[in-house]
Amino acid sequence: MRFTSEQRLDDGVLEREFTLGEIPGTLWTPGSAPAPLILMAHNNGLPKAQPRLVARARQTAAYGYAVATIDALGCGDRPRSAADEQARAELRRAMRAGEPVDEIFESVVGPMVEKAAPEWQTTLDALLALPEIGGPVGYSGWTALGIRLAVVEPRVAAAGFFAGGYVPRAQREEARQITVPLLLLLQWDDEGNPRQRALDLFDAFGTKEKTLHANMGGHLGTPWFEMEDGGRFYDRHLK
Amino acid sequence: MRFTSEQRLDDGVLEREFTLGEIPGTLWTPGSAPAPLILMAHNNGLPKAQPRLVARARQTAAYGYAVATIDALGCGDRPRSAADEQARAELRRAMRAGEPVDEIFESVVGPMVEKAAPEWQTTLDALLALPEIGGPVGYSGWTALGIRLAVVEPRVAAAGFFAGGYVPRAQREEARQITVPLLLLLQWDDEGNPRQRALDLFDAFGTKEKTLHANMGGHLGTPWFEMEDGGRFYDRHLK
Predict the structure, then answer these.
(1) How would residue B81 be classed by pLDDT, with cut points 50, 70 and 90?
(2) Which of A119, A143, B114, B191 is most buried by its number of CB atoms within 10 A?
């Protein structure tokens, strides 16, 4: 793991870019160390530099957590194959046209989760070797990747998921195997995430310690207090 | 309003029994005054002395709120007509037998809400005249009564409801008229409250500022942290 740049934010949080082999990442650490770690991934492989993710990561770090994100293989600004690019273009077109997107979504996101998960695990190995990061480990964000990691990665002790309307078949199945505490946050009128599917997914999670929070409005309308509620969820399980 | 007994609890909360005409009530006030007020009602007219309600009221008062509850007409230990008693016996029998209960429930709880709401309003008048109680006013508990009060009583500024699987027809209609911020707390496997009805009710509430919290388990399985989450909901709107 090689740090390539760093800046100290106003609230004392240290924000560092790093590379780990081919993997580019960002790590935020609070003033106090060692801190518990939250892996934060944006839905469906959106870039790690996306401003909403960055804002959420900075706030979470200021709240006392180390936060890390990466652009995994096929995600964010990492190069994609011509076939991947075409599948994504087709997904965008179908969504705009209001056509059924299940199969296209499956072909885009299914392989993306398969490729991303091992890179997140490699990153986790490297992060936990840093003295400023303690256990235990939480996960926050992209539902499909989080399901996979919660199932294959015993170091993940709690998971917060967002949306969950479209999740690849493999992860809908794996959801039943999750045993860690879980918070699913959904927007009641999320244009891109059918509500009933998110509720079905919540029902399917295997863990007995699961909580659903739903608020009004579209995908980007999550109210500010859910950030605090999320913080308290992680506090209960990681501190 | 006449106070008939009082005791000071360990955490400084003053617990007083009162009568207001025919209405028996309990008022909990925190050490600091004047405090915002929460009207706390138990589902479907259970007695105000029921230990879970008392525990919740005491905790809420220790958290900085004045809390009041009453046994309204037809509720708790107040005398009931022979017809009321018979309808309730029939409801219990049908529930035990696993028979459909909608119509019986309607005949028991519909009139109960009609009779209870004016007494809660009378009590509110008297409570707000006390120097130790400030505005604004929140509501907590019994969904059907809370819907009615949130619609007819402009002094109610925020409402937290529990369960919501069975709600009389009149209140299912009135739900669309609610405009105050609202938190609906439900238990995913609540044996007495069909989940889909609670979700439909949440969808129907007219307010744009509504949040749903759902947790695993049966009617009595609400996790402890929802008490804190509820406290923060009231803090956002009443403090």
Answers:
(1) confident
(2) A143
